[in-house]
Structures are given as structure tokens and as C-alpha cells.
Amino acid sequence: MTRKVADCRKAPSESHCTLTITGEEEEVLRAATEHAVSVHQHEDTPELREMIRGMLEDEPAPGA
Asked: InterPro entries given for it (predicted)?
């Protein structure tokens, strides 16, 4: 299974957050949503989760 990456540096933010989360898609989605709510004061909505899911990228292969 391809691992996914959520990188806060690629999202607009006043805090200039540098957190990167890597893992299986549902793990990353859950952790990134919790981070967006607790750190960036977003509301946990289906729209937020879809926005995060759309920003996920495949993790580069080792050695790539």
C-alpha cells in the first residue's frame, strides 16, 4: 500500500507550520484533521476532511 503525506508547509497558514505527517491514508487523514482542529482552530467538518484528503500526496519511494 502506498503511504501518504500531509505537509502543513503546503497549506496557507499564518503560523508557518512545518509539520509533516506520513502513514496510511486513513491514519494521515485522522491525524491531519486532529492537527488542523487543535493547532489551526479549524472546525472538524466533512469539507475539512475532503480538503485535507485532496492535499495528500504519495510518499516518495525510499531512495527516490
From this structure: DUF1059 (IPR009409)
